[in-house]
Design goal:
The chain is mainly beta. Helices cover about 10% and strands about 55% of the residues. The protein folds into two domains: about 25-210, no CATH class; about 215-415, Porin, CATH 2.40.160.
């Protein structure tokens, strides 16, 4: 087990960008400061916040160049991404309750930004994200992009008010008579998009929507694997202080199968690179060892332990091609014990005596886990390492170090957007 760990841990921390390429440059174009259109390949980072620059290549074999907001009017990637440069008045007031002020009016700051275009037509809808603040803008042939006003403010120590002026702005600038109400629109991307599209359809007008194809992917996998464990028991012998000795015993490995499910949600930005998996795994282990250093008399130590491990993780995916990827993740395991047995059987007399010492009780515990995986289509393979987990009763002088190495295969049984 220890030799395997020395091999696996460097693999889990390998920087794959040094060894593997990714599909990042996609067909697009930009307009320079004079409005000249240049066809190129743009590095699509799936930006969460609005960028101020981007990398591009004129062709597959050319060098990587960079353009900034200072020398670019527009850049776009297919029908997924389009950013336009504007000088706008934007309110960046925080929406966090602890940071709200008593002023219900927006506090505008003039900024030169790339606004992300969501809908293009008679009415244009944009969004802008900076930090944890998201703002939406609208424009038409007569007005430049103007922020849709939404601001939460402090009424008193216990109440929060909301300035929903954006509803009136939409009703004034883009409506279809009384057929579509602005009353139930929330200040959220999906709600605003839904309203604008309904008005376009009501008026019989054409529009262009820019949207990424990877908006919020969910999948579920079945997983089956083999676990190699390492389990060390420690106890303190003596009266404490300088007269005490720490006795340690490595139990024989209890290797066996593990199985369970993984539910994974891919975040709707960064081009499917960031996801949040939730694993539910069943494992079982048993140990038996005679005449250890843990107890002075002749004895046999027995331990049985089964549990459900539940662990959320954060995973970063590196795409090798359109159907294959490498993933690297870290998670926190919560261990729910189903069954446990811890016994010392004293065998130095004529009749064996079994001690069910409450100090040996196995506790539900937690640990961190590191994993690397390879995915191709619906097929999945994973190596993961669970760091030390203390299974002993924390009120006792017994200490248990349980770690493990998993080799897992899986298959995607469900995918939905």
């Amino acid at each position: 087990m220890k030799y395997l760990i020395r091999i696996v841990i460097p693999i889990l921390f390998l920087n794959p960008t040094e060894s593997f390429g990714q599909v990042e440059f996609e067909k697009g174009y930009f307009l320079d400061a004079e409005g000249k259109r240049v066809e190129c390949l743009i590095k699509n980072l799936g930006w969460f916040e609005n960028p101020t620059s981007f990398d591009y290549k004129l062709n597959e074999s050319s060098e990587i160049l960079t353009r900034t907001i200072s020398n670019t009017k527009v850049f776009a990637i297919g029908t997924e991404v389009k950013y336009k440069k504007y000088i706008v008045e934007v309110d960046l007031s925080s929406d966090n309750v602890d940071e709200l002020t008593a002023d219900k009016n927006p506090s505008f700051t003039e900024k030169e930004v790339f606004l992300r275009q969501l809908i293009e037509g008679e009415l244009n809808l944009f969004n802008y994200i900076e930090g944890n603040v998201q703002r939406f803008f609208i424009s038409n042939e007569e007005i430049e992009p103007t922020q849709l006003i939404y601001k939460r403010y402090r009424v008193d120590a216990f109440n929060v008010g909301v300035n929903n002026k954006y509803k009136g702005q939409l009703k004034y600038l883009f409506t279809c008579g009384d057929k579509i109400s602005t009353q139930n629109i929330s200040y959220a991307k999906s709600s605003l998009l839904n309203y604008v599209k309904k008005v376009y359809e009501c008026k019989g007008l054409k529009y262009q929507q820019y949207r990424e194809s990877n908006s919020g992917l969910f999948n579920a996998k079945v997983k089956l694997g083999y676990r190699i464990t390492s389990h060390t028991i420690e106890t303190e012998r003596g009266s404490g202080g300088f007269g005490s000795n720490i006795i340690s015993e490595d139990l024989d490995a209890s290797n066996g199968p593990v199985f369970g499910l993984e539910f994974e949600y891919t975040l709707p930005f960064m081009k499917n690179k960031l996801s949040i998996p939730l694993n539910v795994i069943y494992q079982s282990a048993s140990y038996e060892k005679s005449d250890t250093e843990l107890y002075p008399n002749d004895h046999t130590f027995r331990m049985e332990y089964s549990s459900i491990e539940i662990y959320p993780s954060i995973r970063y995916n590196y795409f090798l091609n359109k159907s294959s990827s490498l993933g690297f993740s870290a998670g926190f395991v919560m261990d729910l014990i189903l069954n446990d047995l811890n016994q010392l059987e004293i065998t130095d007399g004529t009749k064996p005596v079994v001690l069910d010492d409450p100090f040996f009780e196995t506790n539900s515990a937690s640990n961190f886990i590191l994993a690397a995986n390879f995915k191709s289509g619906n097929y999945y393979a994973e190596i993961s390492y669970g760091l030390n987990r203390n299974l002993s009763n924390f009120s006792s002088n017994w200490n248990s170090k349980y770690s493990y190495l998993n080799f897992i295969v899986g298959y995607t049984i469900f995918t939905s957007k």
